[in-house]
Design goal:
The chain is mostly helical. 63% of the residues lie in helices and 0% in strands. Helix 2 packs antiparallel against helix 7 and helix 19 crosses helix 20. The longest helix is centred in the first third of the chain and has 47 residues. It is globular. It starts with 10 loop residues before the first helix and ends in a 15-residue tail after the last helix. It is found in: Membrane.
Length: 451
């Protein structure tokens, strides 16, 4: 959520922001979870006491011959519960040791995926600006370094931050359809389609290398506990759902905004690509080619719904849904035993959002009275939901919408939150942190029954 104009930052500051966005990306932070799981398995005293240090080092480095292990893996897993009591601990140690090696392989694949997308994305953007002179002229007039812009945009898009080094975000490039088509896949690869694309990437590696370890991971994605690695059916369902959401938004946006003020001056092809770019960014990333304040309220409400939906929302077929539900129930039962009385006082995520919106309205109550067109309830809802899901969409602020004209007012290109009071901004900061850490509180409202 931008509260200052982006062009005030120097090239060095943009590089620092790029580094911070890269570190905070969902894909990179998911690698930490893999490392923590590996450390937990490595520090298991049962493993430490029964395996030599040399053997353990080989397992950690993935040097052991996993093809031999994999040949008997299925038999080992099926017969695990039928072994005698004295062999159960040894079986568990073996499984944990193999999982450590698989986690190393998976981590390497994720790193390759991460670096490959960033390299290709930055290269394509850089090449586009070198070829298209009018686009490069924009950067030259703004004093932006082309290499920094290319890397910054790729990192920001893939990490779903929504920052662009220009004050106008992507609106200044709304007629550069080629650039928009380069960026659209990066939005999907870094968030809503990440599990499906990761599985596809692993499948391609397996077909190329024929390594049995990759085949095992693809067939048993839940064994490693990596939240972003789905089954084949789940990945296909996710891809279809994402495409469905995009198609619905694109259709509605085309009907409502084709001849609107927001798309004026654009050719038919530019409108199609621009509309596709806008609706893809509504789930995450939040980069804009259109001024959201010029878009119809009905479309804004659809954007709010899309922003609220979790990135991996999908419609699962019955059998897989039942399996997921059973596993969730088992996990919930185990978790319920550890809960204390305080956890039952927590509300649902939607309830907390309503509370945050109310708090913002209280903090900005004077501006709601004095400047109702800018500080409307819909604008505040968009800002809060966008902050909660870390999307970055903003309705902006316009001095022309002021009922009581203020001569000292100056239009700025940063987001609507930039005009909020310090109290309102602090609440929005809390909302953003709450959105990033929401997974730790997703199950807290189960005790509430709405009938």
């Amino acid at each position: 959520m931008s509260t200052v104009e982006m062009e005030v930052f120097s090239n060095a500051q943009l590089i620092i922001m790029t580094f911070l966005m890269f570190l905070g990306g969902e894909v990179l932070t998911s690698l930490l979870a893999l490392q923590f799981m590996k450390l937990k398995r490595t520090k298991d005293p049962k493993i430490a006491n029964t395996q030599s240090d040399d053997n353990l080092d080989q397992i950690e480095l993935g040097v052991i011959n996993l093809s031999v292990v994999l040949e008997n893996d299925q038999k080992s897993l099926e017969g695990h519960h039928h072994h005698h009591h004295q062999n159960q601990d040894q079986d568990l140690i073996t499984i944990n040791s193999k999982n450590i090696a698989f986690e190393n392989i998976l981590a390497s694949i994720v790193v390759c995926y991460l670096l490959l997308v960033h390299f290709l994305g930055s290269t394509l953007i850089y090449t586009y600006f070198e070829i298209i002179s009018n686009a490069k002229k924009v950067l030259r007039e703004k004093g932006l370094n082309l290499a920094t812009f290319s890397i910054f945009t790729t990192v920001s898009t893939f990490a779903n931050c929504g920052f662009i080094p220009t004050n106008e975000n992507m609106m200044i490039f709304k007629k550069n359809s080629g650039l928009l088509l380069i960026i659209i896949p990066q939005v999907l690869l870094g968030n809503t389609l990440y599990p499906a694309c990761l599985r596809c990437f692993m499948w391609l590696l397996h077909k190329t290398t024929k390594r049995p370890e990759l085949k095992y991971i693809l067939k048993n994605p839940k064994v490693l506990g990596y939240d972003h690695l789905f089954t084949s059916l789940h990945s296909k369902s996710l891809a279809v759902t994402v495409a469905g959401f995009v198609a619905v938004q694109f259709s509605v946006f085309g009907v409502l905004e084709w001849n609107s003020e927001a798309t004026s001056g654009m050719s038919g092809y530019q409108k199609v690509v621009g509309s596709l770019f806008q609706v893809v960014n509504s789930r995450h990333s939040g980069e804009s080619v259109f001024d959201l304040s010029l878009i119809s309220p009905a479309m804004i409400v659809i954007f709010v719904i899309m922003m609220y939906l979790p990135p991996y929302t999908c419609f699962l077929p019955t059998e897989d849904a039942k399996t997921s539900s059973t596993e969730a129930d088992e996990a919930e039962t185990a978790t319920d035993r550890k809960r204390n009385i305080i956890s039952y006082l927590f509300f649902s995520q939607l309830t907390y959002l309503a509370i945050f919106i109310i708090l913002v309205c209280i903090a900005e109550r004077e501006k709601l009275k004095e400047d109702p067109l800018n500080f409307s309830l819909l604008n505040i809802v968009v800002e809060v939901i966008s902050a909660y899901r870390n999307v970055g969409f903003s309705m902006g602020y316009s001095c022309k919408r002021q009922i009581k004209a203020n001569e000292s007012c100056k239009d700025a290109s940063y987001g609507f939150a930039g005009k909020w009071s310090n109290k309102g901004k602090l609440i929005l900061i809390v909302v953003m942190f709450f959105g990033r850490l929401k997974k730790f509180n997703l199950e807290s409202h189960k005790v509430w029954r709405m009938q």
